[in-house]
Design brief:
Blueprint lengths: L1 E4 L4 E7 L6 H4 L2 E7 L4 E5 L1 E6 L2 E8 L5 E9 L8 E7 L7 E3 L7 E3 L4 E2 L3 E4 L20 H13 L4 E3 L20 E5 L4 E7 L1 H16 L3 E5 L9 H6 L20 H4 L5 H18 L5 E4 L4 H6 L12 H18 L6 E2 L7 H4 L7 E3 L10 H15 L6 E3 L10 H13 L14 E2 L2 E2 H5 L8 H15 L6 E2 L11 E5 L3 E6 L4 E6 L2 E6 L6 E7 L2 E6 L6 E7 L4
Parallel strand pairs: 1-8, 12-13, 13-16, 16-17, 17-18, 19-20
Antiparallel strand pairs: 2-6, 3-4, 3-7, 5-6, 7-8, 9-10, 10-11, 14-15, 21-22, 23-24, 24-25, 25-30, 26-29, 27-28, 27-30
Length: about 550
């Protein structure tokens, strides 16, 4: 009997001879998986092309419980119907999928119950809105080797989350690599034309390999499923696979030559048909991987409610978008038997979006209403962002930080520490250029760096220190417990542990029981000073005016 570790992938495949007009649609295959405890899961199968002159259908399943499993297939084709099998689920070889911590819902955990500190890369590099130097709208789409080298760099530096922004991103005028885009079969790469009745097997096979590679390297991949904001710009809508002119099913809106309004039409049965097919096929192939999470869309709340000089006709009532999101997140829940974490995309500060039941974690952008030439005000705004979102009791992740902060790696380092001590996972800046040039990051090439960007060294320092020393899952952002002459951001479990970040040095005064403390240098990874004090009001002074982390642990008095 085949043995499959808990949470890993069991695959059943069956070749079939014969002719099919459209095997993606002609055959419907499912399997019912059952444990000895009579738990039942119905899993969609999927068509996977031709091997040795025969059509191949597959079923993938990731068992959630140890013990013996059996299955039986259900199909409208006799060659695939009533097939049976079994396997033994053995003890896990990983900590399992990413979850919301059951006791501390503002933080992530793993399925085995361990806390998971997320170091987020953010939205991967994507084309700009204009063309200049490296920021070319039509830069070469990254190869599979590009992605693997990129993942290697992230993994080596303890970055463990990457957010897809390419699956449906339509700024580029042509498809230079059909394994990169689109999910539907590409029939004219020069004109972005698709066959909406067939899926792109090269696309799915590549993403399966990429997601598996990321899993091996310890990265969670947030896969964008339904749309991005490119439906709202005429140029990008003209390149989008949803556009009927490109083989899709959506007509151009009467407002602004875009497809935005028609996408969110709840009575559009064609959208329900084609998006439903696409989701079920995608979930059947990818949901089995424990390192995947789902992103329904991107920048939806921004475009729904914020004034936008460039897009005056694009705005939609947030209620309409929220209702659409509710429908599709419910659809995903129905057909994803593992209930991988799902986020609605950019929810900003709208309770209707943030609190939607399909929004397991908050994915948003940094606030844009701050003085861009004043770092101190920027850090204050980002600190407030975390405190305001803490009330929703969901983990929060930033998708991208402001594009004006490029090549300022000291600012980026500070932003990650501000994010952590404000209760969320920060992101890198908005990068509008390619990934790799051979083994060199294009970012390094663009900014004349001798090595990879130094932010990755700083992120490894952050992860190593917090993971080893800080009980972060029990802590929450609360600045009122600390008096200081400069900006400080405080993550704490009151009267037990404090992590206080000083972006520009300064002093701090707080009342505490007897405790030990240390000053940690986030630039070098070294501890500068340690000490111990008795209970009372304690005054601390940072070693200098660079950024510093003060870590305090109250002594056990029992």
């Amino acid at each position: 009997m085949e043995k499959i570790p808990k949470w890993e992938v069991f695959e059943f495949s069956r070749p079939v001879e014969g002719f099919f007009e459209n095997p993606f649609l002609d055959v419907h295959l499912q399997a019912i998986f059952t444990t000895a405890g009579s738990e039942v899961y119905k899993i969609d199968g999927f068509y996977d092309g031709i091997e040795n002159s025969r059509h191949i259908w597959r079923i993938r399943f990731a068992p959630m419980h140890e013990g013996k499993w059996s299955f039986v297939t259900i199909a409208n084709l006799s060659a695939l119907d009533g097939l049976t099998g079994e396997f033994q689920c053995t003890e896990p070889v990983s900590q399992g999928p990413l979850c919301v911590h059951p006791e501390f819902p503002n933080w992530f955990s793993r399925e085995d119950g361990s806390a998971q500190l997320i170091i987020n890369e953010g939205w991967l590099p994507h084309p700009a809105c204009s063309s200049s130097d490296y920021e070319d709208l039509d830069f070469r789409q990254p190869s599979e080797k590009d992605f693997e080298k990129y993942i290697d760099i992230l993994s080596e530096h303890k970055v463990n989350m990457l957010i897809g922004m390419s699956e449906l991103y339509a700024r580029q005028t042509s498809v230079t690599d059909t394994s990169f885009i689109w999910p539907w079969k590409v029939i004219d790469s020069e004109k972005n034309k698709i066959d909406k009745e067939r899926f792109n097997l090269d696309f799915y096979r590549r993403w399966e390999r990429t997601i598996q590679y990321a899993k091996k390297k310890g990265l969670f991949y947030v896969f964008e499923l339904l749309y991005d904001n490119s439906l709202v710009r005429p140029r990008e809508w003209s390149n989008h696979p949803y556009n009927k002119k490109n083989g899709g099913w959506l007509d151009t809106d009467s407002v602004g030559d875009i497809g935005w309004h028609n996408l969110f039409d709840p009575d559009n049965e064609l959208s329900k048909l084609y998006l439903g097919r696409y989701l079920r096929y995608t979930l059947a192939r990818l949901a089995c991987y424990w390192n995947i999470c789902w992103e329904v869309g991107a920048e939806n709340a921004n475009l729904a409610v914020l004034p936008h000089n460039l897009l005056p006709n694009a705005l939609l009532p947030v209620e309409k978008i929220a209702a659409w999101m509710n429908y599709w997140s419910g659809f995903i829940r129905t057909y994803d038997p593992y209930h991988r974490l799902c986020t609605l995309g950019d929810t900003t500060h709208h309770p209707l979006m943030v609190s939607e039941r399909g929004n397991d974690f908050i994915l948003t952008q940094d606030p844009r209403n701050y003085p861009r030439d004043d770092e101190n005000q920027y850090y204050k705004a980002m600190n407030l962002e975390g405190i305001q979102h803490w009330q929703y009791h969901r983990p929060m992740v930033i998708g991208e930080m402001d594009c004006s902060n490029r090549n300022n790696y000291h600012l980026e380092r500070r932003m990650y520490w501000v994010g952590l001590t404000s209760g969320y996972a920060m992101s890198r800046f908005d990068r509008h250029f390619g990934l790799m040039n051979g083994t060199t990051m294009i970012e390094s090439e663009k900014f004349n760096l001798n090595d990879i960007p130094p932010i990755y060294k700083y992120l490894k320092i952050l992860y190593d220190y917090v993971e080893k020393n800080v009980e972060f899952r029990r802590m929450s952002p609360e600045n009122s417990w600390v008096k200081s002459n400069k900006l400080t951001c405080t993550l704490a479990e009151k009267s037990k542990e404090y992590l206080i970040y000083f972006p520009f040095g300064g002093d701090a005064e707080l009342s505490l029981p007897a405790a030990v403390y240390e000053w940690f240098n986030p630039r070098s990874g070294n501890v500068k000073k340690t000490g111990q004090f008795n209970s009372g009001t304690i005054f601390f002074q940072s070693p200098d005016e660079e950024d510093w982390v003060l870590h305090i642990k109250v002594l056990n008095t029992n």
